[in-house]
Each structure stands twice: as structure tokens, then as C-alpha cells.
TrEMBL record:
Gene Ontology molecular function terms on file: hydrolase activity, acting on ester bonds; nuclease activity
Lineage: Bacteria, Pseudomonadati, Bacteroidota, Flavobacteriia, Flavobacteriales
The keyword Membrane is annotated on this UniProt entry: no
Gene Ontology CC: cytosol
Protein name: Putative pre-16S rRNA nuclease
GO biological process: rRNA 5'-end processing
Length: 134
């Protein structure tokens, strides 16, 4: 049994989500500094079996990419060079941050949680993973 891992890649922070070992339910994992992402992944993938990495595809309304796409491509290239057997799948992540913010507001979390950008990134990763799982 293997998990599916999803990331919402950002300039400063990257949100992570993962499935249960059966690959059916998405859970928020954590948010890490993007500069420490590969260190975290090395450690996590040493402990857990992951069969697929899902990476958010940041597009604007008219299918144009954000500048962040260059950094994501570099990350994917580095990831594939280290973890050759784990396929990388891209999933459209449009509006995930907005939906994450709205979800936090909807469940009436306190203001400190609504302003927590790390929580928003983690929830965005969950949304990306749920989209992949269908």
C-alpha cells in the first residue's frame, strides 16, 4: 500500500497533503519552507511509501502561467533526478487558495487561523489532492 503526496508549491512556503495508505482519503500533512522542501521530502519518502507526487499547476484565468512555474519546473527536475521511480502528475490549482481561505472562514475559525498562511497552503494542497482523486 502506498500513499499519494500532493504539494502546493510556493515561493516561501509549500503546503503538503497526503492520502491514507489505501490512496482514498486526503489529509493535510504540513507546510514547510520551500527552501527546505527537498530535505523534508528526502526524510518523508525514506519513511513512507509514496506511489505518486501531485504538483499544483499554477495557471491564471486564461491558461497563462505565473512566474512561479519556472521554479516548479526546476523543483520537478530535481525531484525526478533523486526519486526516479515516483511519477509526477500536474493538477490545475486555480482558485485553491481562495477556496482554502473561504473554507476557513466558513467553519468560523478564529482570526489567527484565518490569517495563518501556512494553514491556507496546507488546505490548498489537500484541495489539489482531492481534485486528483476525483
Amino acid at each position: 500500500m502506498s500513499r499519494i503526496l500532493a504539494i502546493d508549491y510556493g515561493k516561501k512556503r509549500t503546503g503538503l497533503a497526503v492520502t491514507d495508505p489505501f490512496g482514498m482519503i486526503a489529509f493535510g500533512l504540513k507546510t514547510v519552507k520551500t527552501s527546505e522542501l527537498m530535505i523534508f521530502l528526502n526524510s518523508y519518502l525514506y519513511k513512507e511509501r509514496v506511489k505518486t507526487l501531485i504538483v499544483g499547476d499554477p495557471k491564471k484565468w486564461k491558461n497563462q502561467y505565473f512566474d512561479l512555474e519556472k521554479d516548479i519546473q526546476t523543483f520537478i527536475k530535481n525531484f525526478r533526478s533523486i526519486f526516479e521511480k515516483i511519477p509526477v502528475v500536474r493538477v490545475d490549482e486555480r482558485f485553491t487558495s481562495k477556496i482554502a481561505k473561504d473554507s476557513i472562514t466558513y467553519i468560523k475559525l478564529k482570526k489567527k487561523y484565518r490569517k495563518n498562511k501556512a494553514l491556507i497552503d496546507e488546505i490548498s494542497a489537500v484541495l489539489i489532492l482531492q481534485d486528483y482523486l476525483g
